[in-house]
Structures are given as structure tokens and as C-alpha cells.
Amino acid sequence: xxxxxxxxxxxxxxxxxxxxxxxxxxxxxxxxxxxxxxxxxxxxxxxxxxxxxxxxxxxxxxxxxxxxxxxxxxxxxxxxxxxxxxxxxxxxxxxxxxxxxxxxxxxxxxxxxxxxxxxxxxxxxxxxxxxxxxxxxxxxxxxxxxxxxxxxxxxxxxxxxxxxxxxxxxxxxxxxxxxxxxxxxxxxxxxxxxxxxxxxxxxxxxxxxxxxxxxxxxxxxxxxxxxxxxxxxxxxxxxxxxxxxxxxxxxxxxxxxxxxxxxxxxxxxxxxxxxxxxxxxxxxxxxxxxxxxxxxxxxxxxxxxxxxxxxxxxxxxxxxxxxxxxxxxxxxxxxxxxxxxxxxxxxxxxxxx
Length: 353
Fold this sequence. Notes:
By secondary structure, this protein is of the alpha/beta class. The chain contains 14 helices and 11 strands.
């Protein structure tokens, strides 16, 4: 199990070639002296990293993708995928833990976030699920990565699930928070219980012109995301600085178009690109994922299905494990980075057995 004591040993003895220069951290004197910690526990600002060393850029497909990288250049690759309203800083503590174990860690800003930009002003600002997954395939091609462990939450879970389902030859293993979240737009026409619908309030807000205007308002955009953070993660006591680091990613010029299109497309209120209809048809059939997988549920996540992973267990046919993280909400990698990193190592270990 990862904790700050074992992490320190790994960083000191087992991470040959890992790059640590430039990592900014914040720790209390007691934490620095003892190296103690536990997993999973809600993270506190005093115990965590605060930034990545740098963000790189690379042209991939229709995008110039911004991404952070850590660990040895020739280590086994892990790609960590964020959700909404989050950014790469969801993994600011997970990345060094995995780098210390010898992994090459890639953390990209999804389209419409951070320093990721479209190469052409004429490109449709499309956020349907298959296109976001194709962005990650294009990134892997640009970085000459044949195969990687894919891990994500929220939009990132969906994206990782899609790649594992449609392109398993590119996915070595999978970690997916809230399990199988590939969108079936036909099924989305059916109502959920009121308590579940309530958790999705912003999805319906964004379906209106009033919601678009609210997201275009920079102050409202900021406050809306902060409200969602608090609702999604009721036990996570993040500070203002932690939120503001991520909020910078929402100033991307395509942020509003991408967020609005994503949620409207899911509800069948916006069209996708017909070029991807065949992929979406395959996804609508709920393809089974056969790569080694660990699924994670945050106990306090308002979007976690009931039943300790049973609701989606039959969607994973390969080596599999499920973990429910007590006291943890939606943003699992930032709330419980040690548990998330441990899940990556566990999933990767399945394929070696």
C-alpha cells in the first residue's frame, strides 16, 4: 500500500531515472520529520504537492495538447485523464507516486482545458465522447507510445473506458472511477430517480441558453465550478489556492463551447460529427472491456452507483478488482492519491500474472 513512508522509500531507493526537480510541495514540519501518512484519507493542503514542474506542448491530431510529464523517459507509460470541472492538478500527487515506482506519467489537458488548443479556428468544437478518446490516441501516436495504462475519473473515466473497449491494443490496463461510464444517448432519454437527477443539476442548466450565458460569465464560471467541487466531494476540505490552480484551466478560449457541447450532446440536444457515427454506434451497444481493470468508487461520490460496483461488474471480462474508498468523494485522485496510485500499480500487475 502507498503511504508517505513507503513513498519516501520508493523515491529514495527505487526510482532510478525519475525526475523530481521542480516539483513544488507543501508540508508541515511534523509531516516532513516523520514521513507518516495513511491511505485513503482526504488530502490536506499541508501534505501535498502544489504544481507540476512544467507543462509541455505537442501537436496531436487537431490539437496542440498541453501535458505534464514525470518519471523516467523509458518507463512503462501511465496516462492520467481528468474530468470536469477539473484539470491536470487532480493528479499532482498521483504522478510523483507513480514516477517513484518507475512509471513514465503523462497527464494531458483535455480539449478546451488549460493550454490545449485547437490548431484551426475552423475546427468544430466537438466534445462527443468518441472524439475526446481519439484525442488521447492522437497524443499517444505523437509521443510514440504504443500502449499505456489508462486511468481516469469523470470525463477521464469515460475516455479511458472507450479506448479500452474500442482499441484494447493501446490499453495495457485500466483504472476507472465509477466504473463503466460509456454514454448511451438512447438510454439517457429515460429519467433517473429524483435524487440522481438532482446531482446532475448543472447538466440541465447547460442545456439552456441561460446556462451558456452563465458559463460565459467568468465570475459565475469560477463560482459554479467551486460549488460543484464542494457538492461532489463533501469531505474534501480544499483551500482557495488549490481551487485557483485548477480554475486557471477554465480560461481556455474553447472551454465554454466544449463543456456546453459535451453535456448537450449526451442528452441528445446537440449533434456530433457524422464522421464518428460508426464509433458512436459501437459504443451505444455497451461493448465489454476485456483489459485488466480496477474500478474505484468514492463512498461519498454523489454519482457512485449503489451496490459496491455490482451495477457495472458484467462490463469487465478480464482480470478485475473493485475498491470502494471510504470517506472519499468524486475527485478520487486528488482526495486519495495514494489509493489511486495503488490501483494503477494493481491493474498493471494483473497483466503480468
